[in-house]
Amino acid sequence: MTFDSPSIDYAALSPIIALTAGLVVLVLVAVFDSIKRFGSPIALLTLAVTAGCLIWQWDTNTDLVAGSLHFDGITVTLSLLCVVSAAVAVLLSIGDPAEKQTGRSDYLALLMGSVLGMVMLTQANNIITFFVALELLSIPLYALCATNLRKRDSLESGLKYLIIGSVGSATLLYGLALIYGTSGAMEFPQIAAGYLGDGTPDSINKLVGDPLTLVGIGMVTVGLAFKVSIAPFHQWTPDVYQGAPTPITAFMAVATKAAVFAIFIRFFLVALIGMVDGWDVMLAALAAFSMVVGNVGALAQTSLKRMLGYSGIAQAGYMLCGVIVATQDGISALVFYLAAYVAMNLAAFAVLVAHERRTGFSDDISSLRGLGRSKPLLAWPLTIAMLALAGLPPTAGFIGKLYLIEALVDADWTWLGVMIAIGTMISLVYYLRVVAAVWMSPEAEASPTDEIDTSGLPPAVAGGSAGDFTDGQAHRRWYLVLPAVIGAAATIFFGVVPQPLVEFAQQAGNALSAYIS
Amino acid sequence: MDIEWYLVLSALLFTIGFTGVLIRRNPVVILLCLELMLSAGALAMLAFSRMLGDQDGQVMVLIVLVVAACEVVVGLGIVVAMFRRRLPLDVDDMKELKG
Amino acid sequence: MTEVAFFVGAIGAIGGAIAVVAMRNPFYSVLALVVHLVFLAGIFLLLRAQFIAAAQIVVYAGAVMVIYVFVAAYVGGIEEPMFDSSPMLRIVGPILAVALFVEISIAVLGSSLTALGTDGSDKIQGGFGTPEAIGKLMLEDFLIAFEAASLLLLVAAVAAIILAGRKKAQKEAA
């Protein structure tokens, strides 16, 4: 019994190998108490090596390992975004109560596992790899949300995320089965070929309009929509974002979107390119609905984490427009916007972590008052992040939205561009409310001091960790302030000089030049 | 036996599982219903695999078994952690996060 | 002959599934799922998936269900009343599920794929569904998915240890 092992391009596989090595090392380190504290440096080293390998393979565009993976510009750009988000999450986790309770290296090992899933998902080129990578991304996240074991919210959020995420995965699986059955192939290019039948318009129409195919596409969309929180499959997002430990919320909010949009692009624009007329209307409806639900929902929120959750729903709607247009410009706009989104969101979350840890209060927006006067190093990044999320110049958020609207108009989807503009205007209300709170002077009795009276802390401010783990000097910790400052600086820099980021994004857009215009 | 029958059976099992996830309140039972949904997807995969004469579907189902096992392990871990802290195991009572 | 086997298997699987959803005692639900899985393995055999059927019994009904049994015994769980979920869900949920079933069935029955009406492809070789054939595929075509699945198992094990580990381990870490 012999078999031909597939030819393996180790160079292009190096990011995955680096992450796997890091994961295994972290699991081993977790066993020995004496070296447990080296977890964070090891994790950061792993991520740095992975990023290095990705940049080293910048121009590669090949199939790997017998067609299971396809390494190209989309892979490199979106994987880099995931790796950067993970590095910031590692920094934000230093000293986090969740991390302390579970043992630093175990926690970081789970984080590495999730990043590995993301990097694999951005390269997935067949249905099996798609499903495995998505689960490898999600399952550690379910556990990580629950790691703040002493807090009820954290465990609840982990369970809720697991149940709802798994319903999404099961729906996705069924949809993938239907697509496999109707097209007859597993690899994405072969699926597209399968839907062409024998090339005659008759057979194409028969396969493309087949109700089984349509149900399959619908179910796949539902499954992916659960993951990236597109309305009406967004119900879990505010609750889970609020209950999970804040570094994990930060990681989830940006990195899952980056990875899942990579597979969105690859699946819909490579495998399902033949029926673009069928699914683009469906996706457009979902995108419009997300923009409305996300923006309107955020208006009523008093908790900053929930508000960022709802805003994430709206932003996912904007990003989906990049997939709908099915052009290279659309993909470039999407990747640019994702990169800007990573920078602005991570800055906001870094400030939020520092604020939570310093005061022990949770993420209530009114507790941010007085930040501008007392802690400018935290206030300015938060302000810039909020303005960038709202899409005001001269931030990268503004340029990103501009590119998205441009791509939409060029592809005759003007009404979606109008919806983005309307959504932006509504979002100004809640983003500016945060900015106003930051620069307003604190109320006399409500301003938090560095010593907390834990007995009187109201449990109504959900998500707060009263007592044990507050860190009075949190606003001076380099690992919290650095991500905030760099994120804000990047947002402004790429808002003024967008060219480097545009070239970065075009690396992704050009990757699919063989398939779309 | 026509392949259609297997697909209709898998659809029925999928919806029974889905109903269970919506209706039941005990997290352990909800996880069981999730297993039902995943097995239904696996059955559909195998039916198509037989229809096409292609064994790729069977490999996928093996992977699905692994994935389902991992999800169960993490889910039950969370349930045990909640039980340890004497938290009520009733999904409808998890209202603390609704707001 | 296959028709009989199919109907026996189908009725067992559906019965087991309904029992999982309908039984009030969570322990009985776990046992109902075991019954369901055994009948489902029978159906897998009809689809020429011998290895999968055996793996299902050994891994799923054997190992995973044992975990469930232990946790159900440990946690106990509420013996909840049958129709006590929020009234809206009680009505909307089943309606949604029935709608989904009808939709998929219509899609299946109305599909133009002729192969659906047959007994399956004629082009299968003798080794269809055997461990040898599946192993060959896993090592040749799906190597990366195979490795990723093993990493997934590692990560799940680490997660389980973190979540359900003893308090002593947590105190050490703090």
Task: Please describe what this structure looks like.
The complex is a heterotrimer of chains A (517), B (99) and C (174). Chain A has a domain at 275-444 and 470-517. Helices cover 71% and strands 1% of the residues of chain A. Chain A is built from 21 helices and two strands. In chain A, strands 1-2 form a two-stranded antiparallel ribbon. Chain B contains three helices and no strands. Chain B has helices spanning 3-23, 27-52, 56-84. Chain C has two domains: 1-102, Four Helix Bundle (Hemerythrin (Met), subunit A) (Up-down Bundle); 130-174. In chain C, helix 2 (26-46) packs antiparallel against helix 3 (50-75). At the A-C interface, helix 1, helix 4, helix 5, helix 6 and helix 10 of A face helix 4, helix 5, helix 6 and helix 7 of C.
How is the biggest beta sheet of chain A arranged?
2 strands, antiparallel
Alpha carbon gyration radius of chain C? 21 Å
Which two chains share the most extensive interface?
Answer: B-C, 70 and 87 residues
Q: Helical segment tally of chain C?
A: 7
Chart the SSEs and their pairings.
The complex is a heterotrimer of chains A (517), B (99) and C (174).
Chain A lengths: L9 H20 L9 H18 L5 E3 L4 E3 L1 H21 L3 H6 L1 H18 L5 H19 L6 H32 L4 H8 L5 H8 L2 H18 L7 H8 L2 H26 L4 H24 L4 H21 L3 H32 L11 H4 L1 H15 L5 H15 L3 H26 L38 H19 L2 H11 L8
Antiparallel strand pairs in A: 1-2
Helix pairs in contact in A: 1-2, 1-5, 2-3, 2-5, 3-5, 3-12, 3-15, 3-21, 5-6, 5-12, 6-7, 6-12, 7-8, 7-10, 7-11, 8-12, 11-12, 11-14, 12-14, 12-15, 13-14, 13-19, 14-15, 14-18, 14-19, 15-17, 15-18, 15-20, 15-21, 17-19, 17-20, 18-19, 18-20
Chain B lengths: L2 H21 L3 H26 L3 H29 L15
Helix pairs in contact in B: 1-2, 2-3
Chain C lengths: L1 H21 L3 H21 L3 H26 L11 H23 L21 H10 L2 H22 L2 H7 L1
Helix pairs in contact in C: 1-2, 2-3
Write out key terms for the chains shown:
heterotrimer, A: 517 residues, mainly alpha, two-stranded antiparallel ribbon, C: 174 residues, Four Helix Bundle (Hemerythrin (Met), subunit A), 2 domains, 7 helices, 75% helix, globular, disordered C terminus
Please sum up the structure shown.
The complex is a heterotrimer of chains A (517), B (99) and C (174). With 517 residues, chain A is mostly helical.
